[in-house]
């Protein structure tokens, strides 16, 4: 079994980076970018997915890591919800929502698997 030495090696963190790229493309769209509140909130929530994984991993303590993973999962849910606001405001298309939403679903599955693993140990 491979030992993970850096948070960057975690598939969940890598998926969070992928989601971040998608979110940043969407929030740079002209109409979305002009809504400073929603834009900043969406980018901040997405950043929290990555940052909570990194911070929890660096704690070196499984229960603490699991707690931070749960925060990352909640942040992904927040991103999904904010994207619905962007859709309703006609800032993004249904297809763009689906792509980002599906990335967040995949991310949350990885997080859930990690939490289950940590809880077994």
Can you identify the CATH class?
Answer: Mainly Alpha
Structural Rg: 15 Å
Mean pLDDT: 96
Low-confidence stretches: none
The CATH architecture classification is Up-down Bundle
CATH structural fold name: de novo design (two linked rop proteins)
Sheet with most strands: none
Terminal Cα span: 15 Å
Q: Total number of β-strand segments?
A: 0
SSE string, helices as H and strands as E = HHHHH
**DSSP helical segment count:** 5
Portion of residues in helices?
over 70%
Which term fits the overall shape?
A: elongated
Structural class: mainly alpha
CATH homolog superfamily: 23S rRNA-intervening sequence
Taken as a percent bin, the fraction of beta residues is under 5%
Number of domains: 1
3D architecture notes:
This protein is mainly α and 121 residues long. The chain has one domain: 23S rRNA-intervening sequence (de novo design (two linked rop proteins)), CATH 1.20.1440.60. Helices cover 83% and strands 0% of the residues. The protein has five helices and no strands. Helix 1 runs antiparallel to helix 3 (36-59), helix 1 packs antiparallel against helix 5 (94-120) and helix 4 packs antiparallel against helix 5.
